[in-house]
Amino acid sequence: MKKILLIKALLLSAYILILLNQILLPEIFLIYFFPLVLVGIVALIISLLVRFFRKQSFLRVMKSIFIISLVFQTLVLSIISWSIFPRMHYKEDIVKDIDFAIKTMEDVHPNLYAYTSKNDFDQKVDSIKNSLQKKESETKVFKIFCEILSSVQDAHTMTDFTFPFKRGAFIFRKTLPYKFKVKGDRIFIEKNHLSKKSVPIGSEVLSINDKTSPICIKEMENLISFENEPWRNMWLSTPIFWSLWNNFKDYSIRYKSSIDSTINTLKASGGLLSKHMFVIDLPVNSENYMFRIINDSIALIEFNKCRNLNEFKSFLDSAFKEINKTRINNIIIDIRKNGGGNSSLGDEFMQYISTTEFRPFDLGQVKVSEQIIQAKKLNHKIIKNSKIGQLFTFIDTTIKLRDNPLRFNGNLFLLIGGNTFSSGASFASQFQCFTDGKIIGSETGGLTACYGGAYKLVLPKTKIPLRVSFKKFINPCGEFNKRGIIPDFEIENSFEDINNNVDRVLEFTLGLISQE
Questions:
Q1: What is the enclosing helix (H) or strand (E) of 439?
Q2: CA–CA separation, 442 vs 433, rounded Å?
Q3: In terms of residue numbers, what domain contains 14?
């Protein structure tokens, strides 16, 4: 028994030694003792039954419990170690993948050098290649490709943001324990994901790890693909990218309190609980679409995701039957969480709210390439009438209204924000161009004219997943000015609203309706 206890102590030391720089100390003990408790309960019940029938000693029962839990604890440590320990890539493999990625982007993208000249792009890539060490960690390589693709300045051409979650490594790494809100080159605390070292909501972050906020933001901009400030700010509110920027290490944050304006410094890192809270906050974890009646004249439709067309058709049919039945004459459509997906859902929605024929876009083009043909993203007509490297223009994009007894003829209000992107922003453009409804909120993260579509590839050497645009869109009434949809009434939730769980944008809209 003494030997087993000694092994247990050595195993706990191994847990601390291996994981101390990765996760918080209390969580190390939690992970260590959890298998002991779990296995102990099960093994104790089984062993007591065996002891009852075979008259084994209690010491022998406890010994068996410790042995079984020891096996499980060793297994857990092995799995965590496999998850978090960095994979290394050789320089020559990284360079080959960089060249492969650039060649693919040049083949697939409609205009890869629309915003960054080829000369500037090549200089940046050469600088990155020359800075490579003989071997680089998987995290460093991922950040390298983030930096290369961010140079394109196309929000749809990006590294796959799910990569940091690969093998579950994100679970066992330190993260930023706060949600930021960025305004220009200033950072504010919007939400605490850590209870012990909470910061007053609205406090301004002056520096992180001795780097001023403007410098931190500038460095973060090199890791994210964005086209306008609202979409940049969306990514800058995401703790996972700050964690990546900081290489999943501890944070020293200097801030100015929103309560008494005092300057404070604290060291903090997020653990399992803060990660859980951060994941819950992600827009992708909201319901696809929701409907509720606010009062006898107002209905609210939350259109959060452009996913599952058949399910959405059923949802709309049910919602508008209820609207028709209760004689609702005001509908608020909330797309502030809509990051895009299948644009056909927006077209289907327009069949219920538009009183005239409409267009999904004013101009639609697709770049014809071998990669896109092999991915079966082009129909036979396009392939037959196009050459490799050509931009094929969509001819007829007008959609006529079908007979629909549930078509709404009342007052429409659309709520938009920085998280409104891609197909979500396309729907906002249709709404603005083809309805008389009012738009409330803040500028969308998605542009009125942009590159899009998603050709997905995995780099052959490093296995990093990328997405490259292969289409060009000008949304209805849109133009290439790198701006999103501008609302009729610009309203944002304040820090006080967030702290008090008040939706000022919705409240303002309800006030507008009361004035009608």
A1: strand 438-441
A2: 17
A3: 2-84
Last residue within a domain, chosen from 266, 281, 296: 281
How far from chain centre, in Å, is Cα 399? 32
The 3-state DSSP class for residue 456 equals strand
- The pTM of the full predicted model, rounded to 2 decimals, is 0.88
Give the tens place of pLDDT for each residue, 319-332: 999 999 999 999 99
Q: What is the CATH number of the domain that holds 188?
A: 2.30.42.10
Number of separate domains in the chain: 3
- Which is more confidently placed, 145 or 382? 145
Listed residue (236, 243, 200) closest to 221, CA to CA: 236
Whether 452 and 360 share a structural domain: yes
DSSP codes joined into one string, 105-165: HHHHSS-TTSSS-HHHHHHHHHHHHHH--SEEEHHHHHHHHHHHHHTT--TTSEE-TTGGG
231: closest CA among 473, 481, 444, 415?
444
Q: Under a CB-based contact definition with an 8 Å cutoff, are residues 447 and 484 in contact?
A: yes
250 and 316 in one domain? no
Which residue among 51, 67, 84 closes a domain? 84
**Percent of the chain whose predicted confidence (pLDDT) is above 70:** 90
CB half-sphere exposure, 285, CA atoms < 13 A: 7
Q: In this prediction, what percent of the chain has a pLDDT beyond 90?
A: 64
d(Cα 454, Cα 471) in Å, to the nearest integer? 8
Q: Is residue 498 part of a domain?
A: yes
Distance CA(456)–CA(158), nearest Å, equals 10
Is the pLDDT score of 52 beyond 80? no
Tokens 């104790």 identify what position? 44
**359 and 259 within one domain:** no
Does residue 473 belong to any structural domain of this protein? yes
How many Cβ atoms from other residues are within 10 Å of residue 292's Cβ? 11
